[in-house]
Design brief:
It comes from Larkinella knui. GO terms for molecular function: ATP binding; glucuronokinase activity. With 331 residues, the chain is an alpha+beta fold. The protein has 11 helices and 10 strands. The protein has 2 domains: 192 residues, Ribosomal Protein S5, domain 2; 131 residues, Alpha-Beta Plaits, CATH 3.30.70.890. The chain is globular.
Length: 331
């Protein structure tokens, strides 16, 4: 029997990136893109590499382009880390895994390194496959923390809980990462929101902008750790944007949500360096009346549009910037 599991891309709608600083966020899963894992029993444990895991190149230019778009590592290190962490989780709970092996392979359609959380999707899909294969139940509130520790402690990736929560819960979720709650329970407060309450949303992204998000967050992290007033206050304000957005969603206040999306980015810009290529997308969207903020760490933006005419204008404006526009499919 072949086990097949999947995890989807995500977009941070409000509160991003306060999740890594005990803040609050609202995120959506984006089912337009996903990572899938296939697993079946076999005599030995095998991880099948994909094209992005290759160490064989046609030329030095092929290597250069591959690294620029895919990074230095493919999905195999992510799967190895997930397997190790899953095994350790079971050991800690005294769960003895059956003596059987498997072959595992992955595929992904999530654009790389544009802030749509492709790496964690592979890990979430891997955990889901392992849970099915070994019939081990990991409580849903705990799974995002386990995925985050796989990335941060095993692979040294700087990240927050937001991406992992929405990829585990799916749909639309309001998250409160209160420090006391995290320290006591190991997870935050996660409230699913009915997707039908969402306004008209778009996502635009440039694949050429890819940067590893951990590098982007490191400077702000060190400044936050030192208690720099501007950074601490700004991240608190960003978290409050999500709190206000939660109220606006429940009250069907689209105009307020529009303003909050813009405010989220404007606050972020106080403490993060924003590249001109990213600013081009934000500015282009706002010029035609749409709201715009980062969907993640950069390379993709998310916002609210008014009607089909505005959406068509978004397609045209973003095409001039070599960016693609999609309507996120949220279930």
């Amino acid at each position: 029997m072949i086990i097949e599991t999947r995890a989807y891309a995500r977009a941070g709608l409000l509160g991003n990136p306060s999740d890594g600083f005990f803040g609050k966020t609202i995120s959506i899963s984006v089912r337009n893109f996903g990572a899938s894992v296939s697993l079946y029993e076999s005599p030995e444990l095998n991880i099948e590499p994909q094209e992005q895991d290759t160490n064989s190149f046609r030329s030095i230019y092929h290597l250069r382009d591959a690294v620029a778009s895919l990074g230095y590592h493919g999905g195999v290190p992510l799967i190895k880390a997930a397997l190790k962490r899953f095994c350790e989780y079971c050991d800690q709970l005294g769960i003895r895994l059956p003596n059987k092996n498997f072959t595992i392979r992955y595929s992904t359609s999530i654009p790389r390194q544009v802030g749509l959380s492709g790496s964690s999707a592979i890990i979430v899909a891997t955990f889901r496959a392992l849970m099915k294969f070994y019939q081990v139940d990991i409580p849903l509130p705990q799974l995002p923390t386990l995925v985050l520790k796989t990335e941060s402690e095993e692979l040294g990736i700087t990240a927050g809980l937001q991406d992992r929560v929405i990829q585990c819960y799916e749909g639309c979720v309001y998250m409160n990462f209160d420090r006391e709650l995290l320290e006591q329970c190991g997870h935050g407060y996660y409230e699913p929101i009915e997707p039908r309450l969402l306004p008209k949303l778009y996502i635009a992204y440039k694949t050429s902008l890819g940067k590893q998000s951990g590098r982007i967050h490191n400077d702000v992290r060190s400044r936050w750790d030192k208690g720099e007033e501007l950074v601490v206050k700004t991240l608190q304000d960003i978290a409050d944007v999500a709190r206000q957005g939660h109220e606006a969603l429940l009250n069907h206040d689209t105009d307020r949500l529009h303003d909050l999306v813009n405010e989220n980015f404007d606050l972020r810009r106080r403490i993060y360096n924003i590249t001109e290529s990213n600013l081009e997308m934000i500015s282009a969207a706002r010029r035609i009346g749409a709201s715009a903020s980062f969907a993640g760490s950069g390379g993709a933006i998310v916002g609210i549009y008014k009607d089909d005419d505005m959406l068509n204008r978004l397609f045209i404006e973003m095409k001039h910037l070599n960016a693609r526009v999609i309507k996120p499919y949220v279930v």
